[in-house]
Specification:
6 helices; about 45% helix; about 15% strand; alpha/beta; five-stranded parallel sheet; about 130 residues
Length: about 130
């Protein structure tokens, strides 16, 4: 399966690792293909620069160790994307996931769980582990 990780998952995994998050990442990396979009990596860089400037190296090391495929986030035309979502800042992530044709988007952002779409599946790390353990 191809699984895209949202920015909030990357922040949690890299800066606030827990046993559960480590188990999740190990399972995904071992059995699936991780996909990251350029928008999430840019957003990650911005969050770290603004909120955790002393942890930049930690993010670099995390990303160097994480096996992933990078996909470019296209310019988002909100007219073309007929999926209503509360926070327009989430559209680039959703568009990247749809255009990359990933099977699943892993996120902690509750707005994604309101979407009425078949693909990609939207799951939290805990839901993923529960379903695919």
């Amino acid at each position: 399966m191809e699984i895209m990780l949202d920015t909030n998952i990357l922040v949690s995994a890299a800066l606030f690792p827990s046993d559960a998050m480590t188990a999740f990442l190990e399972r995904v990396a071992r059995n699936h293909r991780i996909v990251l979009c350029s928008y999430c990596l840019d957003e990650l860089s911005d969050v770290v620069r603004r909120k955790f400037p002393k942890k930049r190296r930690q993010i670099e090391v995390f990303l160097q160790k994480l096996p992933f495929t990078l996909v470019h986030t296209p310019e988002v035309d909100l007219v073309e994307l007929q999926v209503p979502i509360r926070d327009e800042a989430d559209y680039p992530v959703l568009m990247s996931a749809i255009l990359a044709n990933v099977d699943m988007l892993i996120t902690g952002d509750r707005d994604f769980f309101e979407l009425k779409i078949e693909r990609p599946m939207i799951r939290t790390p805990a839901q993923f582990l529960e379903q695919y353990g």
